[in-house]
Amino acid sequence: MEVLELARWQFGITTVYHFLMVPLTIGLSILVAAMQTRWVRTGDPRHLKMTKFWGKLLLVNFAMGVVTGIVQEFQFGMNWSAYSRFVGDVFGAPLAMEGLVAFFVESTFLGLWIFGWDRLPKKVHLACAWAFSLATMASAYFILAANSWMQHPVGVTFENGKPTMNSIWAVLTNNTALAAIPHTLAGAFSVAAAFLVGVAGWHLWRRRSNQDVWRSSLRLGGWVGVAAFAVLAITGDAQGKLMFEQQPMKMASAEALCHTEQPASFSIIAIGDVAGSNCEDVKTFNVPALLSFLAHNDFKTEVKGVEDLITEYQAKYGTNYPDDPELGSLAGKPIDYVPNLPVTYWGFRMMIGFGAVSAGIGLLALWLTRRDRIPTGRWFPLLVLGGIATPFLGNSAGWIFTEMGRQPFVVVPNPSGVDGVWMFTAQAVSRLTTGEVWTSLIALTTVYAALGVVELFLMRKYVRGGVEAVMPPEKKDSDKPGEDTLAFAY
Questions:
Q1: Where are the strands (E) in 207-363, listed by range?
Q2: Phi first, then psi: what are they for 41, rounded to 5°?
Q3: Residue 297 DSSP SS3
Q4: Its GO CC terms (predicted)?
Q5: What are phi and psi of 158, to 5 degrees?
Q6: Average pLDDT of the chain?
Q7: Can you tell me the distance from the alpha carbon of 138 to that of 102, in angstroms, rounded to the nearest whole number?
Q8: Which of 150, 12, 172 has the alpha carbon at shortest distance from 96?
């Protein structure tokens, strides 16, 4: 492998790993704050127990997310220094905002929330929970604004060979970002909902103590999961229409659409090698005209295929890479404008499929627990515990599709933007040796694997311990200083 390929593998491994923590933190933090709100308003100890149990798991996941996330921004300078110099003037502002929100607001209010039980007034303590939760969403917003700029550069001029930001407002209100944010947050709630359904469903099936806690948690997760999938469908449709306008090659590769069609059919599934040179060798099961509707809200729109788009891209951005020694073996070679079709085609379908399965499991869990029923089948815990993985897989598949679908660009040209504001991935990599990148790749992968073992151990410990593992023993009436004596023993 060459430096470029190794650097891409390293960034992909660490980023996908980190993003396993992110959606659970975002979604679960809001749900825990909602549980605590319910307890403050009603005084029902069931909601206090829910807050403490799920809050403990949230803290474990948040800590791992912080540790694994630090590497992400450092990698820009490690393996992608040319890219960092190119986008630095643009990325500085949103990443600085994210750092301030993440490390100051999140950390401050999370600390107050952890240590403020029985020390802060109830409503002040609850406000800390909401401040932390909303800060996680704000942090995600700034990161997505930066990522969306790579997908659709706006708010810049092109000076001295690189983009210079002239409007932070344009960057933060990029229509690509505004579509990505609700979609990503809905994905986060889908992850948190499946987590609630899986863990609570397992405890409920075991028929142990605190059945009211597990039933409430399961049903909360079920309803949130179904609602999240509905939002994912709506926001995904909006993203698809933007993709049709901004990244037509990604749209074509998502369908393995080799030739332009009008109207264009949506491929449900393909049999054969979608990356093969002969499109006729691939058999697809299609819904007529549906792709045209997804692209432009009508059933007649033309959708360009890969072959026609290659010609257009070659006319705009060249047929060959520059004859530059820094490009390694790609110097002077023809540019392949087609993303990895098996990854984009099947990644797109995995994203949708796993999301639908997750929502379906949540809906089934709601049905099986209606009217105080408790599922008894031995298949039930296997179903709900296995269902925890489905939104994680869907989120990962969606991000892999999004990022690999824009290749060979690391900064995608904006069709209506400023000329010159785009960059090939091959031009973005640092001048390193393969040995240096192999070293960091192996080291980081090993460290991340060890952290994964630690997280799984802690999660398993507290999940199996149930409410009792996070609640201190209740004091005798004679020892109680007041009515609220259950300290949040962190």
A1: 266-271, 283-287
A2: -75, -35
A3: coil
A4: cytochrome complex; plasma membrane
A5: -110, 110
A6: 89
A7: 8
A8: 172
pLDDT for res 484: 41
Distance in angstroms (rounded) separating the CA atoms of residues 31 and 224: 9
- 392: Cβ contacts below 8 Å, ≥ 6 apart: 20, 23, 191
Q: Match 């999240």 to its residue by tokens.
A: 228
Whether 287 shows a pLDDT value over 60: the answer reads: yes
pLDDT at 271 over 80: no
Which DSSP symbol is given to 334? Answer: B
Are 217 and 49 in contact by the 8 Å Cβ rule? The answer is no
pLDDT recorded at residue 145: 95
Alpha helices in 207-263 (DSSP H): 211-246, 248-254
Integer Cα distance of 53 and 30 in angstroms: 14
The per-residue DSSP string of 36-72 comes to HHHHHHH--HHHHHHHHHHHHHHHHHHHHHHHHHHHH
pLDDT in tens, 45-65: 999 999 999 999 999 999 888
The token pair at 379 is 């298949």
Q: H helices within 79-154, ranges in order?
A: 81-100, 107-115, 122-151
The pTM score is 0.91
Backbone angles phi, psi at 414, to 5 degrees: -90, 115
The set of residues, in sequence order, having a beta carbon less than 8 Å from that of 15 and lying 6+ positions away, is 72, 399
CA distance 490 to 487: 9
Cα 182 from Cα 236, distance rounded (Å): 9
User: What is the helix (H) or strand (E) element at residue 355, kind and residue range?
Assistant: helix 341-368
What interhelical angle do 45-78 and 81-100 show, nearest 10?
A: 150
Segment 321-337 shows an average pLDDT of 86
| Distance between start and end Cα atoms, the chain | 47
Residue 198 pLDDT:
95
Binning pLDDT at 50, 70 and 90, where does residue 335 land? very high
The residues near 43 (Cβ < 8 Å, ≥ 6 apart) are: none
The pLDDT confidence band at residue 282, using thresholds 50, 70 and 90, is low
Give the separation between CA 122 and CA 116, rounded to whole angstroms. 9
Task: Check if the beta carbon of residue 181 is closer than 8 Å to that of residue 144.
Answer: yes
Q: What is the CA radius of gyration of the chain?
A: 25
pLDDT per residue over 394-403, tens digit each?
999 999 999 9
Q: What percent of the chain stands above pLDDT 90?
A: 63
**228, 359 contact by CB (below 8 A):** yes
Crossing angle of helices 122-151 and 107-115, rounded to 10°: 150
Reply yes or no on whether the pLDDT at 231 is more than 80: yes
Spell out a b/e string for 234-271, using b for 16 or more CB atoms within 10 Å of the CB, else e: ebbeebbbbbbebbbbbbbbbbbbbeebebbbbbeebe
Q: Summarize the confidence of residues 426-434 as an average pLDDT.
A: 90
